[in-house]
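On clarity, I found the account of how folds are encoded harder to follow than it need be. For illustration, here is how one protein appears when written out as sequence plus C-alpha cells:

:::
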Amino acid sequence: MRVRLVEEEAAWLGLREVWNTLLTECRISNIFLTFEWLHTWWQHFGRGKRLFLLAAEHDHRLVGLAPLVISRRPWGPRVLEPMGAGVADYHDLIALPGLAEEAIAAFWAELSSHSRRWDLLHLPQICGSAATAGALGQAIGDDGYHLHQSAGDVCPVLDLPATWEEYLSSLSRKTRMNVRRYARLLEKEFDTSYTVVAKPEEVGPALNALFSLHGKRWRRQGLPGVLVSKRRRRFHRELALALLERGWLRLHCLHLGDRPSAALLTYCHGNRHFYYIGGFDPDLDRYSVGTVLLSQCIRSAIEEEAHQFDFLRGAERYKYRMGARDVSYLTLRVTQPKARSRAALAGFSLGDRVIGAGKRWVQARQASG
C-alpha cells in the first residue's frame, strides 16, 4: 500500500475518471463523494484552503481516497477536514472493501507525518461510521493522539418498495388520503403540470424558481434561508450542469398554469435519490404543494427502481409522515498531544452546542409559524 499526497489541482484533475470508477467499485452511492460535487465545491469554496488529498494505491491501482483540505478557523486552529464541508451532508474515507483497514492505516501514517501542518482532524457526518472509526482508532493506537466520537445529525431515509401502490399502502391512512386529495384538488382548480429538468438550457429557469420560492417561504418566517448567498447560488448553478451531464440531476418543478409553484432539488447516484432542498409558494399552503411535489419525486424514484430516498439531515416531521426512518452517523475528531489541538477541540464542542441551540430555535419558529 502506497499513499500519494496530492496538493495541486492539476494532479487532482488527473484523477477524475478513476475517482468515480473507484466509487462504483466500492459500491458507494453518495453524490457528495463524487468528483463533480467535490471539485465544484473547491472552485467556489476553496479559497483560503490548502488541498490535502490522499490517494492510496495497491499494485499500481487506485484503491482509496481521503479527500481533505486544511483550513484555518477564525479563532486560530488549522483544521484538516473533508472537501465539501458546509454544503455536503455526508463525508467518508473511500476505500475498496477488503482493503479499507489497510488503506485507512496508510492514510493515518501520512497524516501523522504531516502533524505540524494541522491541529485537529475533523470528520463530520461519516457514512461508514463504525468501520471508519474502528479502523482509524486502531491505526492511531497509543501514540499520544486521541480519537473523539460524537453523534452526528439525524438523517431520515425512506426505503423504497417496488411499486407506487405498495409505497402508498405503507403510509398511515391520513397521509395516504392527503397525498391523493391534494393532488386531485390541484388538478381540479389549476392547469397542473410537472417537469424534470432534462436539458442544460432548462437549468437556469428551474433554479431561479427554486431560489425565489425558497427565499419567499423563509422570509415569511423572518429568516433569510440558506440560498440567499450569491456564492451558494453560483455553486448550485455550476454543479447542476455538471451533474446533469452525468445523469445525476433531478430538479423537479410543479407548475400551476405558467407559474412555478414548487421546486425540489434532488440528486440520483447509484441506487439512491437524495432530497437536497425545496422551495414552495407559501401563498398556496392550503393546497400543500410541497407534499404534492414531494410525492411525485418519490414516485419517480420508485419508477427508476431506486432503493432509497434519502431526506438528508434534519428531523422534520414531514419526513416521518412520508415513511422515513432514522439513520445514525458519527462525527470523528482527532487531537494531537498539544494545547493548541485541545483548544481547537474545545472550540468545536462549543460550536456544536451553539449550532444545536440555533437549530432548535429555527424548528420552534417554523412550528409556531
